[in-house]
Amino acid sequence: MENTNKEEYKIHSFDADTQQLLKTALKDPSGVDLETVANFIIDQSLKDTAFCKEAGRICYTITQAETKQSGANVFRRHLLNRLQQEYQERDEMRARSLKEWVCFVTFICYIFDYLKTDLRKT
Fold first, then answer.
1. SS3 of residue 8 by DSSP
2. What was the pLDDT predicted at 117?
3. Cα 115 from chain centroid?
């Protein structure tokens, strides 16, 4: 897996407040509302398949930083709750937008890929 701590994240296309929110979440997860961060990442991922890989990387890094910092799983819980909610409404999502459905599945695949890759290291 790539060293995500020293790499820049592709968040420059977002407004300044959103960039700051994500940068803070990546370095100090306890300094932001992690539910807002999780919702933003999922919302963006549902719009843009190109962002899904980056979103998976960001989620992985925030999860790792939070666990290291406090041993908590608040971000992961918010992320999983929202993904479960979206999955329960998958039929409506597919009927509304096939692109949104493809983005959702792509995002889940990238999250799984980062977690699976991390598990291989242990």
1. coil
2. 64
3. 12
